[in-house]
Every structure is written in structure tokens, then in C-alpha cells.
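Run log, item B.
One chain of 314 residues. Sequence copied directly from the ordering sheet:
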Amino acid sequence: MNSILVTCYVNPDLDGVAGAIAYAEFLQKNGKNAVAGIIGELQDEAKYIFSRFNLEFPSSIENANDFTEVILVDASDLNGLEGKVRPEQVVEIIDHRKIHEADKFVNAKAQIELVGAAATLITEKFIQKEADISQKSTILLYSAIISNTLNFKGSVTTERDLKAAEWLNKKLNLPQDYWKDLFLAKSDLSGDKLKSRMIDDFAFFNFANHEVGIAQIEMIGAANLVKNRQEGIMRVLGELKDTYDLDLYFLNLIELEECKNYFVTDDRPTKEILEKILDVRFEGNLAKKPNLTMRKQIVPLFKTELEKYARNRS
């Protein structure tokens, strides 16, 4: 039995798997019996990095039952774990979200810091300890920081993200346009890939007794997607609404090359809230916004608005 499992959300994105693998390496180099394990399927962007650099894929596990302790990286709420990790197993949480459920993991020491990527927090541990880092972890962490900060154009980007990425790339010397290869790898949403991506990167929350669901897609070519596939987007949103019994729901579509957001929903109350908190205007089921706004930034605004609405009604 391995004593410590380092993992992330079920069906993890690049930031989650990069952080889990690199932090397990860091702990091993500090004498801990830790291993990285992934529950579910890697998202396409992460698969691309492993394939492009010929990296060994992480170990796949069914659940955390064979481990006495669990560390979560880029994960801090129960929904994304889907019952595969028992809250009492978790002894440490490393995440970067303003809205989280770290208090539900009663045995866990939590590091929640508002940087652009969980990979930045892991990179800083190597820097602070002046620890050796493998090329595999270097590639994964650097790629994750680029992805999560939207190539440093997202407003979640901090000086800490920039410094961590610079430290990592000094060891790699990847080309300046590497970001575009990374983003193009997750921009093919032909056929059933659209539905799979929306489901894979879907998150739901309960704010003031409202079930809120937000799908997010980051890609190049978003304008063509909303022009040609809006009916398909609405169909998937409808399925998610029924599955999770959602009161409010939308797709946050991030255009990486042109630096803008598209918001898609057919739900009138959702439109009204988005118009208020993001200063956008819907035409039909679509609204646009310049610059780049991520779900992790929208969620606190949604929470505040719904709680204010609930107080005013009481």
C-alpha cells in the first residue's frame, strides 16, 4: 500500500495532472512515500503534451481506497471528486480558486492562493527548496501555467505566474509560439468532441439555494463554433440542465487568439445575471465580451449576486 496519493479532480485538465505529478516528485525528493495517480480520463490538452514530448502517462487508479493519505492539487471541492476520494483521507490541499470547499476536508492543511495556475504554486516549492526537477515535471508545469493564464493574457495572471514560467522555461527554451501549438491542440471540436469537451470541463455550484452550472471551453476559432454549432451547444446545455437539475446555466467560450469571450445560454434569468455582473448584452442566446474572463473569476460574482438577491427577498 502506498501511503500518499497525489491527485486532482476526476478527468483532470493539464493544470491538475501537471501539479499532481510534479508535487509527487517533490515529495519523493524530500523523503516521502508519494505517488501521482489520476482518476478518469485526461483532457485533450493534457494528452497532447504527453504525446508531443513522449512522456510516460500517469498511473490510472479507480479510487483512493488503496491509500492511507491523499493530497489534492488544483482541487478543493467535493463535486469534482465524484466520490472517488473520501474527504477524511485528504491531508493537504493546494489550489488557486477563490470559491472552494477546503473546510469540508477536516484533516487537510490547505494552501489556497489566488494565482493563475496551481502549477505556479508547485513550481515555487521547487524554487524555494532549490530542488532538482525532472524535465517531465518542467514541461508539464510550464505548459500548465501557459494554459491556465491563457498565455499570460488572462486577468488571473500574476507576477508569480510569470516568474515561475520564466524559471521553468530557462530549463526548456521552448519557442515563443509554443503557446499556439498548445491551444490549437484543444481547438478541434468536430463531431462529438464538442459535447465531450463541454461535459469534461463542466462545473456546478449551489449558491443561495440555486443550482448553477458553467461549462467552459478555451480554443482558437470560437467565432466559427458559435456561428455553426450553436444548436449543438444548446442541446448539450439542455442535457446538463436536466442531469444536474440546474436553475442557471451557460457556456463560457474563451477565444484565445482574438482575446474575447462568448457567453451562450437560452435561460433568461442567467442572461440577466450575466448582463449585470459582466456588463454584457445578449442578442438572442449569445453575448460577447472583450478581453479574457475565466470561470473562476465569474463564479464569485455569481455567488455574490445570488446571495444579495436572497437577502433582499428575506
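Observations after the first pass:
- The domain at 4-182 is CATH 3.90.1640.10 (inorganic pyrophosphatase (n-terminal core)).
- DSSP finds eleven helices and eleven strands in the chain.
Flagged for discussion on Thursday.
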